[in-house]
Structures are given as C-alpha cells and as structure tokens.
C-alpha cells in the first residue's frame, strides 16, 4: 500500500520544497531589487501622507515599528507568500480527486479500463479490480437469470407433450363414442398416465428456482429400451394420426440401456415429436435401435425437407427454429432438441443430426451399461 503512493508522496514533498524555495527567493528578490535602499524612504513618505505628520515623526515611527522588527516582518511576509503559493499548489492537487471521482463514475460503465495519473496508479489498480469484480458479478447474475428462464422454458416446453396427449385422447373419446370398450379403456388409461406425468412436471416447476440443468441429479438404472420406445410410440399416436404418419420400430426386444428413465423418455419424446413435426404427411418414421460397441445407438429417421449442412448443428441450439417455410404450424419453441442434447450429454452420450435427399436422421448414443 505504502509503495503504491510513493510517487504521489514524493511529488507532494517536492511541491512543498519548491513552494518554500519560491517564497524565500521571492521575498529575497523583492527585498534586494525593490526594497533595499528605498523601502525606508517609501515607508516614511507613506506615513507622512496617510497620518499627516512631519518627516521626523514619520521617521521615528518607521525606526521603532518597522526597522527594529524587520526580521519578524520579513518572516511573516515569507509565510504569507508561502501559504499563498501552497494554496495554489493544493488547488492543482485537487485535480486528482476529480480524476478519482471520474474513475468511480467509470465503475458504472461496462467497457474500458479506468485510467488515472501515474501518481494514482495504486488507486487505478484497485478501481479496475473493483470494476472487474462488479462486471463479473453482473455477468454471473445475468447468466443465473438466463439459466433460470431457460429452465422454465424447458419445463413449459415439456409440459406440452403430456398435455397434448391428454387432449388428443380425450378428443378421440369425445368424437368416437362407439369405440370398443377395450380401446376406450386403453385411451383412458393412457390419458390418466399422461395426466400423472403432467402433475409431476408441474411439481418440478416449483423447484425450478433452486436448480439449474447441470445440478439435476440423474437416477440411473437399467432400462428396457425396446419397451420404452413402444410406449412412446403409443403415447404420440394422436399426433401421428393427425398428420397420417406411422412409426416403424426396428429394435431388439432384449436391448437395454443404463440411464435415468424419465430423462431419457423426455429425450426420445422430443426427438420423436420433432420428427413428426417435420415429416411429410403420409410417411413413416423409422426408429432403429441396436447395440454398438458398448453403447445403445437409437436412430430416428423421417422423410422431410433436407436440412442444409450448416444448419445441422444450429438446430440443437436453444430457441433455434428452421425457416418458416419448413416449420409452419409446428408451434415449437425451439427448445426440444436443446433439452435432448443436454440430457444426452449428462448421460455421457452424444446426439447428432444428418440430412440428405429429403431424409432427416437423429442418431443418439447412450452407454448401455453402468460406466
């Protein structure tokens, strides 16, 4: 700390020395060049003029008051000149406070370093450190708010999936009152299951401010992958019927994967819904699942407009959507694939998109066993 202001202290010291020297030399030169040999006559003449006294009386006053106390008078004169010059010097030093004030004001500015004179280098360093700290805290607060908002959007996006299923099956029950009893019971069962899932997601919503995506705890277990994909296909059948699409599942019935069943179900739902939304009507969506090198590889392939190569990575970014000519009517928020990528990454897996000749494929790899 002390060494940080040594330059400033040295400058102030030299300023005081210069001020004292100027005061002494100034009085000396005034005495030598102006006062010496003439000052007495001037004083006597002024006393005669002001006090209206004769020469002898004026000279006597000069002798008793001024000449006998000449040393004291000149010392007082030096002091007065010194303090006058000191005030001028201190007025020059107040500029440092103005510059410090401007530096403090600059703390509120986002860009640029705070610059102060060399004498205030230590203060400049501290202000810049405070500014960097404030900027970092502001950035962290913005990122925290952004993460929270994204999580809310993620949940809102995923809530729509079971809600759409519930509405779809209820509409089927309403529009087809003569459905066979067994099929009606199946639709009611699926609607109830989706309602329970919707309730679970709503409960998650109330904890959204306490967690971010990286803090979600995975509850891993061995999952019957074939059964999960069959379930997902059944759950999304109302949407498939609406667009006259079908699903072909090509997978080994004994295929398993190690992961969080709820989270992976969300991944497959999001990818499958995306495939339906971007498929040509009256076409099949092919789901292929197989074991490959210690991992389960699941491929969702559909017929749809070819996605340009430079956009294949962008589709996994949050809130990204393809041009309106290709997503009209999908109503997506651009979060489904971003959520899928995050969850897959948490499982130590990968997801990528491929597209050519009006076909789109999403390839997901998840470790098949506990790692």
Structural key phrases:
371 residues; alpha+beta; Heat Shock Protein 90; five-stranded mixed beta sheet; two-stranded antiparallel sheet; 11 helices
Description:
By secondary structure, this protein is of the alpha+beta class. Among the domains are: 3-106, no CATH class; 219-371, Histidine kinase-like ATPase, C-terminal domain (Heat Shock Protein 90). The protein contains 11 helices and 7 strands. The strands form 2 sheets. A 5-stranded mixed β-sheet has the order 2-4-5-7-6, with helices on one face. The chain has a two-stranded antiparallel ribbon with strand order 1-3. Strand 4 and strand 5 form a beta hairpin. Helix 4 (70-106) packs parallel to helix 5, helix 5 (121-175) runs antiparallel to helix 6 and helix 7 crosses helix 9. The longest helix has 55 residues, at 121-175. The chain is rod-shaped. Mean pLDDT is 77; it is low at 324-333.
Topology:
Layout lengths: L5 H30 L3 H13 L3 H13 L2 H37 L14 H55 L5 H25 L15 E4 H11 L1 H7 L2 E6 L4 E4 L1 H17 L6 E9 L2 E9 L20 H4 L8 H11 L3 E7 L2 E9 L4
Parallel strand pairs: 2-4
Antiparallel strand pairs: 1-3, 4-5, 5-7, 6-7
Helix pairs in contact: 1-4, 2-3, 4-5, 5-6, 7-9, 9-11
Short structural description:
The protein has 371 residues and is of the alpha+beta class.
